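note to self: dont lose this again. the chain is below, predicted strucutre after it. 79 aa total, dont forget to put it in the shared folder this time
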Amino acid sequence: MSPLLNRFFSGETSEQNARPQDPAHRTYFKHPTRQDVAELTRRGFGFYDGGDLANVASRLDELARLGSTVRSPGAQSAE
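---
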């Protein structure tokens, strides 16, 4: 999981203290070309598609049905 998400779920960061990203510190400003994608995948990065997100949502639903005892700060009860 990304460091940002870890900080969010541990309560270090939240939507209330979010701030816009400084454009001067951005490293990517365009839609990737085929060459860009090839370089990203060569470096070990990947992309999610709709099927991947559906699988994650399905797994989260399954975990919620199992009654996980660890809940994220904004999680709603399955009751």
